[in-house]
Amino acid sequence: MSPRAAASRRLGGETGRPVDLDLTGAWLVDPWAGRSGVADVVVRSGTIESIEWTGAASDDDGWADRVVVTPGFTDLHVHLREPGNSAAETIATGIAAAAHGGFTTVCAMPNTSPPLDGRGAKARFDAAVAAAGSPVRALAYGAASAGRAGEQLASVGDLAAAGVVGFSDDGSPIRSPALLRNLLAYAGMIGLPVVDHAEDPILSDGAEANEGVPATILGLKGWPGAAEASVVARDLAILADVLRDVPTARLHLTHLSTAASLELVRRAKVDGLPVTCDVTPHHLALTDDWLLGHRTFAWQPLRAAPTGPRFDTALKVNPPLRSREDAAACVAALVDGTADAIATDHAPHGEVDKAVEFGLAANGVSGLETALGVVLELVAAARLSLPRAVEALTKGPDSVLGATAPRAGFVVGAPADLVVFDPAARWTVTEAALASRGKNTPLLGRSLRGEVLLTVAGGRLAYEAPPA
């Protein structure tokens, strides 16, 4: 039986049950071991029983005609909308979307209504995760400020004791430099990262799209790259100051989108600052040219004539889609390690929030289920190697979480946490194909590479592709 056929066999049974699995001649990618190649994998009752490498280790050759097995993906940045906007997403539907996309761990942002800024909110989150009945691990950030109002610190100690994995006011920047400084110190003392959304709200006030030619043509108010880079510079300066007193302070900058911001992080890392960052699939692959109706990926030449609609509100995101040069800088940052992780910034919305005038539309794209496909398009275009892509979806984000994400790749005797996908199979993004309630993706109708066949989280079945 071919490895693809073996991986495609119906396991049957309910989501959540322990998995028995035999994969022969699959392409295994293990970022922790720094190895990829042909291997046989046996899982019994959810535990990895054996791994036998049967082919020479290789970076890129030989995987295209085999099923690929990697550790389950970790997403550092998702919005699950519950409580407050369950029409757009619930914790259960968001977790289902994660499993469909190959993610076995997701980290939910606290910008719900009410926000996750205390023990009670964290307890309600945990109860909703348990009720979802999925083995996918859903973690939560605590709010950086009380009520996410940006005026005073949230109950950092209580939130840490309740099990949050970091602190963020995402959806809004941490506006006060003094608040950020105190938070970095307190969070650093308890070993958790501060995750900041880098945006100067004065420079971005009223902005609708990236400041550039497409925005000018469409009459949209421009959003300058300086609105992001200036806050990145501020955050790095504050981090350097805090480190003198709290050497364990850690800063993570999420969804960076400009060449200038990434260069600041690159230099900070050279200087030894404990800063990490992520980039999103949409900032890697899409550009502000899409607002004009162009539908080619950032590394592809523009077609002579647009093939899609203008003012597609599925393209309205925060930070906005940038230039082709900025997209290339995001890819380069992944390649050289400046960007530690790929995070989806999964931001589902209902039609009521998107079927409006472009400038009034809610920011965000539903991205958990299309992330792998977009990343594999980058790999197919030889812009990113498969091992590095997998690392940015697994070991990279886990390293940002630190002790809250203890995992070491594939370990015999440990619970299986993995995704099996067919890199050669293509699937069409449709509303019906998405488990998320949020159908707000500009990729609707597009064919993407990579069909997820199986997602196993903690040894239990999280997702299985339906029979062909």
Tell me what you see in this structure:
By secondary structure, this protein is α/β, with parallel strands linked by helices. It has 14 helices and 18 strands. It has helices at residues 3-8, 91-101, 119-132, 156-162, 177-189, 213-218, 226-243, 259-270, 281-285, 324-336, 351-354, 371-380, 386-393, 395-401, and strands at 21-30, 35-44, 47-53, 68-71, 73-78, 103-108, 137-140, 142-143, 167-168, 194-197, 209-210, 222-223, 251-254, 275-279, 341-342, 418-428, 447-457, 460-464. The two termini are 16 Å apart. 55% of the residues are buried.
State the low-pLDDT regions, or none. none
Overall average pLDDT: 94
Number of helical segments with 4 or more residues: 14
Q: What is the strand arrangement across the widest sheet?
A: 3-2-1-4-16-17-18
Calculate the terminal CA-CA distance, rounded to whole Å.
16 Å
Helix and strand composition category: alpha/beta
Our estimate of the beta-strand percent is 15-25%
Tell me, briefly, the overall form.
Answer: globular
Give the helix level as a range of percent. 25-40%
Largest sheet: 7 strands, mixed
Radius of gyration: 21 Å
Oligomerization state of this entry? single chain
The number of strands is: 18
Short description:
With 468 residues, the chain is of the alpha/beta class. Helix content is 29%, strand content 21%.
SSE order and pairing:
Blueprint: H1 3-8, E1 21-30, E2 35-44, E3 47-53, E4 68-71, E5 73-78, H2 91-101, E6 103-108, H3 119-132, E7 137-140, E8 142-143, H4 156-162, E9 167-168, H5 177-189, E10 194-197, E11 209-210, H6 213-218, E12 222-223, H7 226-243, E13 251-254, H8 259-270, E14 275-279, H9 281-285, H10 324-336, E15 341-342, H11 351-354, H12 371-380, H13 386-393, H14 395-401, E16 418-428, E17 447-457, E18 460-464
Parallel strand pairs: 1-4, 5-6, 6-7, 8-9, 10-13, 11-12, 13-14, 14-15
Antiparallel strand pairs: 1-2, 2-3, 4-16, 16-17, 17-18
Helix pairs in contact: 2-3, 5-7, 7-8, 8-10
